[in-house]
Amino acid sequence: QVQLVESGGDSVQAGGSLRLSCAASKDRISRYCMGWLRQAPGKEREGVAVMDSTGTTTYTDSVKGRFTISVDNAKNTLHLEMNSLKPEDTAMYYCAADLGTLCTVEAAIFGYYGQGTQVTVSS
């Protein structure tokens, strides 16, 4: 089964940028539906961006135009480029994977998660 390790979280000012990475091992992520989810204190975890095995991507409305999900198959690594960050983007961000066929930000259910990386955006 795939194992996922996130990195790249940090504390930044509003308007800043961050690039999260998710290094995968034990399996090739090109086989999986891959996604980034986040959970803020006191809130439910929400899908942020999802990429299916064909490279098709979907995003939650609040990050469209600001975040970009991408994959480096040679390095077996998933990325999330985050620009124009807002305080409401503050959350623990998780990389996730699943072999299921429903692979959109609205419908995907993930079976594998990383440990998370913290993103804090100050105003």
Any overview of this molecule?
It is a single chain. The protein has 123 residues and is an all-beta fold. The chain has no helices and eleven strands. The strands form two sheets. Strands 2, 4, 5, 6, 9, 10 and 11 form a seven-stranded mixed sheet that branches. Strands 1-3-8-7 form a four-stranded antiparallel sheet, with no helix packed on it. A hairpin with a 4-residue loop joins strand 7 and strand 8 (77-82). The protein is globular and about 40 Å long. The mean pLDDT is 97.
Structural class based on helices, strands and sheet pairing: mainly beta
Helix content: under 10%
Uncertain runs: none
Major sheet: size, sense and barrel closure? Answer: 7 strands, mixed
What's the total helix number?
Answer: 0
How large is the radius of gyration? 13 Å
Overall, the morphology is globular
Straight-line distance between termini: 40 Å
In percent, how much strand structure appears in the residues? over 45%
Order of helical and strand elements = EEEEEEEEEEE
Structure summary, number of beta strands: 11
Oligomer: single chain
What is the average per-residue confidence, as pLDDT, rounded to a whole number?
A: 97
What order do the helices and strands come in, and which of them pair?
Elements: E1 3-7, E2 11-13, E3 18-25, E4 33-39, E5 46-51, E6 57-59, E7 67-72, E8 77-82, E9 91-98, E10 112-113, E11 117-122
Parallel strand pairs: 2-11
Antiparallel strand pairs: 1-3, 3-8, 4-5, 4-9, 5-6, 7-8, 9-10, 9-11
Can you give keywords for this protein?
mainly beta; single chain; seven-stranded mixed beta sheet; 11 strands; four-stranded antiparallel beta sheet; about 120 residues; globular
